[in-house]
Amino acid sequence: MTLISIIGSFDTTLLNLINEFGSDLKRVILIFDDTLASAKNLSRHQNALENFRMQHKYDFVIDTALVIDEDNTIKLDTIIHIASAYERVMIDITDALGSTSAYLGARAVNQHTSLVAFNPYENEYNIISINGFENKKLKRTLSIRDYVESLGYALNDKRGRLPRDKDAVFWLFKRFASFQNIRSTLIKSSYIPFDSESSMHQMLHKLDIIDESGYLIDRNYLQGGLFEEYIYWIASEMGFDDLLSSAEIVFDGVQNEGTLIHNEFDLLAFKNNRLYLFECKFTKNFELDDLIYKYMALKEHIKNDSKGIIITVNPKMSPDIQLSQMNKISPKLRKKASLFDIHVLANVIQYDHLKKELTSIIYPQGNKAVDPLKTVEKPKQYVYFLGGYDLEMFEIRKILENNKAKFIDNRLSWGAKVSDYRSQIDALGEDEIPVFIELELDYKPTRQYEIVDHHGDYAHRSSSIEQIAQRFEVKLDRFQTLVGINDKSHIRGLKKHGVSLQEIELIRQLDRQKQGVSAEDEELGKRSLTQVEKINGIPVIKTKARHFSPITDRVTYSDYIIYSDVKLCLYTQKLKSAKSLFNAYLQNNSAYYGGDQQMFFCLKEGALSSTEIKNFVLNLTKKL
Predict the structure, then answer these.
(1) Would you tell me how many other CB atoms lie within 10 Å of the CB of residue 193?
(2) Is 621 helix (H, G, I), strand (E, B) or coil?
(3) Number of folded domains in the chain?
């Protein structure tokens, strides 16, 4: 296929189309209007295209650029004449004048030639051919490197190491008040006694901030890197096309003075051909005014297709600060920033609030361009698919029913998978989006979907019932709130919130009932507790019960193991040791984990034979 592109001001349009058509392209011909046809502009576009071709190993030929006058029909006929020389031709009219597009549409479209127009802010394109009009989404999007290099700048990825443990990072910021105190002590004294029973200390050790004795080993990460990584992990959940931490853009705009401008960014994100420049400040010692001026200057290099996002948090702010008071910035300063599409978030630290603020910046209402030729889409409808039954899932169903939400419930047990609903997912309408509630993603549907969960990779989120309540903007009653605490952090969490022993017993009894725990399981669980064996100092419980909850509800050990002939669970506060032992099983999807203060790590039924389970128990006790 031959692509003839009329070049305008939006630099990445052509690269998106080339990336989309890929190896099908044999020739690319560049057409410039004489008003844009400076030698520098022609050279820059050709060089960017050649670099892109070599980097992605495409083998198309780049023809010498042609300069025409778009207001001259004789010159436009040159494009039609060129197109007639090839069998399959697509003319890129994205940046052409309206009159040019109309003329080519009337004269050039035939069996061999069609027109293509790219929408950079939705990553989709329209094809106008003799057969009609088609709207298509890009199958492949550009990377940050593609974008930056197309502007003529260099990109250096300066990450010294991969990001650290996501769950541990979120765990610390969720407990910001406690983290503040320990952080302050570490910065002042570089030491805090290591407490093997303290989850806070374990998380700091897990992130390699302190060593096993409690000595500070990474001051820079504690003072700023940790906060940058917190923002990175939140951004990673927001659907960007590409994301980089600690990257540097080298601008060459002042080469004539013998220097280069180097600018390192805490985070670079890319969505729909727009670059987002993040600055993260976890300190009170900076001038916000200076930061805004810096970003105003930087955005001049990257033109108007970028947004600046400055996130500042004073690590000494009061944990009791009201949300309404967090983002207080002088109106004059905010107005100055908004003129250059720079957004400032001040002292917004809580996960849900911070994500909501960022979402409003990245996906502002009314941001979509309206295409009069495009059929108006129906509003999306959510369909909820319920996971394995327990008390929380039962209460979630009640919320869905009360809000007249569409849901599908196959009354599944723990271990429920998305594939358990495969035929029902395939039967959904085009305007319906499935929402999987605590379902193992054993296969990924080709359609758009959303996940509600707080286990495994989603352990940093609030409980599933809280997430559902937030979606419908309803307030949980006291019982539902306790159900969420129970599911997230079990009996320890309920006790921490001052729940009476009678209420805890009731909630646990109802939870076991909804899980399908039988009277036989209850009796087998009680018997198992009379035969607790200590191996290497760790309590180990062998049981014949199908469900382990009749046992976990009746023990108070900090670290212990329950196993049967077909499955095993470790309950522990020694997170780093536990996760290292289960890591291989987690990666091949034969294990799962969750919890809060005391975590659980479990092998799925059938992951190991009964003999292998016994050996694994022995290895666990040695490691712990």
Answers:
(1) 8
(2) helix
(3) 4
Strand order in the sheet with 406-408: 406-408, 381-386, 432-437, 450-452
CATH number for the domain including 33? 3.40.50.10770
SS3 letters across 475-524: CCCHHHHHHHHHHHHHHHHHHHCCCCHHHHHHHHHHHHHHHCCCHHHHHH
Sheet with 261-271, side-by-side order of all strands? 154-157, 242-251, 261-271, 274-281, 306-312, 342-346
Q: Which amino acid is at 163?
A: P
Q: What is the DSSP letter of 224?
A: I
Quote the CA–CA distance of 48 and 12 in Å, as a whole number: 10
Residue 412 domain-assigned (yes or no): yes
pLDDT digits over 401-423, tens only? 999 999 999 999 888 999 999 99
Query: Distance of CA 115 to CAs 19, 405, 425, 520, Å?
Result: 17, 43, 36, 71
Answer yes or no: is 513 within a domain.
no
Same domain, 344 and 390: no
Q: Cα 428 to chain center, whole Å? A: 25
Tens digit of each residue's pLDDT (9 = 90 or more) over 528-587: 999 899 999 999 999 999 999 999 999 989 899 999 999 999 999 877 778 788 888 988
Output the DSSP codes for 399-452. Answer: HHHHTT-EEE-----TT-BGGGGHHHHHTS-TTEEEEEES-B-SS--SS--EEE
Angle formed at CA 249 by CA 248 and CA 253, multiple of 5 degrees: 145
